[in-house]
Amino acid sequence: MSHRTELTSQDKGKILAYMENFNPAQIARKIGRDPTTIRRIIDRYKKTGKTENLPRSGRPPALNNNEKNALINKVTQDRHEPLHEVINTLDLNCSLTTAKRALHSVGIYSHVAAKKPFISEKHALARISWCEKYKEKTAYDWAQVIFSDESSVEIGKQSRQIRVWRHTGERFNTECLTPIFKSGRKSVMNPKFISISISAYSS
User: Relative to the CA of 123, which of 30, 41, 79, 129 has its CA 20 to 30 Å away?
Assistant: First the structure.
């Protein structure tokens, strides 16, 4: 009776032991295998001196290492670019699924970009300078100050989610943000005033 399962090392050892005194058909009956399989094992042993199966080539990967690295570099440089455009730009012969799988393998996923008001480099430096200037102030000092600010709520604004490619922990990196700019849209201003209570510091 023949079996379709792959020969074990023990089966192959028996074939080599029997091959000097028995033909393939006889060996097949002794170990319950197909004669064609026995002949193939014997022929392989005579040609290579081994009974192991030759390595299977399998399907080649859709992306080689160079292409995968190029894909990763591209999406980390142009976080907002749609993946299908990245594939076209790099002239990659792969599907969106394959490209996503390559990015996911290194921890890069598509996320909705965090929205933050746009701050120029000049304003960012001014804010840092202000913090450095007043960093020695105590909670009691700040309790004497009232902070004011205004936020606007835009009417009739159409929301559109913008996605970016990033690692976990990069959400608030500058290149992963969607800046919010003031526009000419109709809006309602909402003034706010904030002060610090000193009750916690008076005891």
Answer: 79
